[in-house]
Amino acid sequence: MESLTSGNPIGQAVMSFPGLSIAVAVLAIALFARFNSTRTPKPDLPVVGVPGSKITKKELLEGARKYPDTPFILPMEPPIVVLPIKIQDEVRNLPESVVSFTKEHQRNFFAQYTGIGDHRPEMIQAIRIDLTRHIVSTLPDLQDEVRYAFDKEFGECKDWTPFPLYFKVLRIVALLSGRIFVGRPLSREEEWIQASINYTVDCVKARNAIRDYPVWKRRWVTNSLPEIKKITQYRIRGGQMLEPIMKAQLAKDSVREKIYNAETGDEEGNFIEWLLKYTPEHLRNDPENLALNQMVCKCCVQLADSLVAHRIDYLPQVSFAAVHTSSMATTHAILDLVSRPKYIQILREEIAAVRATDGETIDDEGYVRLKKDSFNKLRKLDSFMKESQRFNPPIYSKFSDIQRTHGSTNVNSASGTRICTSDLALSTGHVLPKGTRICFPSYAVHTDPKTTTYSPEYNPPGYTHPEQFDGLRFYKLRNMPGKEQRHQFATAGPESLVFGWGNHTCPGRFFAANEIKIILVELLMNWDIRLMGDVEQKGGADKRPPNMEVDLVITPNPKAMVELKRRRRS
């Protein structure tokens, strides 16, 4: 003992205070345990790709085809184990105590500091039960809002005018989503729109700022980080903006009583009413909790867009996705339309035929609204959307809790990202240790002719190979006897993994599908659109602005420019 303390004032001080020495020892043990708990296990499995290099869907497809019946590792940071698609059924419904999507995303986004990735059961219930039940009643408001959004974002546009597509669609979707989630006039206030977009950006900045500190130091420095203070301020200000609506809903005498806004005449706060109904009693009067739910929801609307647009470090498998990724699916669909312009006339003719059959509503300003039932009859448009999504599977693991809550419309090349919360024994004979990250190769499923949906045997004559784009692929399938209600954009299943599959299938997918259709119908009916400089409107798949890809994440090109011109009003 003398050799340890002799000439060492720190050692002498520690030994002079037994309590201090115990505290130091406990701290050392805690740090060691924390370090070991954050280390990613490395199961003994084949590795596809070079550690430290860029991992893309190329490596994913290579591994899925080379190892169709066994798990393999993609050497990302941290590594992830890709499971064979044949064992989906034994994994998809496992409880949180075995595999968890929530804990994986909480880990990735430091939920204990940012609040992003936390389980929001009230939001899940409000979307799954109430919003889904009232989807049809939202259609008139969404059609009204899409007209306002296009007019606001594109102006008169009498001649061909260039626009950055990604950012314009982002704002249009934010307006439509806001109309339902908070209602007018708040949904149209620029402060609310900007807060929604910037909250997303600053959440990512906060995550990156925390990541720059070693594990042992984060607890002490996080609260003082300007990035954390900034997202906290968003929630405070958001709560201030939402508080009058919240108080009006809580003061109602009954759930049947409706609150109308004096300025707009709209029913106000319907979604907030649904949300408050499922909010724990002790949080029901907390406007900041309501703001957090709304901001996280809005965060989902623009997260992927902002990550690329602001050149923020990318996060593979980010746990956000809401009605929001509608902006990404819509952007991809429009880029596919202008690069394959033959479909523009096909889809316009379908819209015209449905209008002629069902009739339509014309408002005081001469704008046409489709009947509520008409959207389900736009089978060619639905098919085109689904094919575009299949070829452009953007960001996010679709099993994430927030994503399934808000109706994500987009996925990445891999799906079902979770983390093993206990050792996981698979029917393949492998045991994955606790802490292993797992996913499924959804992109491989959606492009393999061995998959039943994309096999020649299952399809009608004139079958198109799944590696080729066919905007009417699913329309043709639905024309086959017995398949009329299958293969829709919002369909979820073992061969249609866009919205997840199993007990975490996204319940908001029906709302998302209608929102995207409403945007595309407005575009097709009332606007001409072409690729930048494509004067003859010939398009060309090779002219389509390339997607942005980082690891297994795919997003629309934020620099893609298109030109629009207003048509004669329908």
TrEMBL record:
Residues making up the signal peptide according to the UniProt record: none
Ranges that cross the membrane: 12-33
CDD domains: CYP503A1-like
Gene Ontology MF: a single term: heme binding
Binding sites annotated in the UniProt record for heme: 506
Membrane topology field: Single-pass membrane protein
Compartments in which it is found: Membrane
GO CC term (a single one): membrane
Cofactor(s) this protein cannot do without: heme
InterPro entries recorded: Cyt_P450, Cyt_P450_CS, Cyt_P450_E_grp-IV, Cyt_P450_sf
Keyword entries, A-Z: Heme, Iron, Membrane, Metal-binding, Monooxygenase, Oxidoreductase, Transmembrane, Transmembrane helix
Family that this chain belongs to: Belongs to the cytochrome P450 family.
Name the UniProt record assigns to this protein: Cytochrome P450
Organism: Canariomyces notabilis
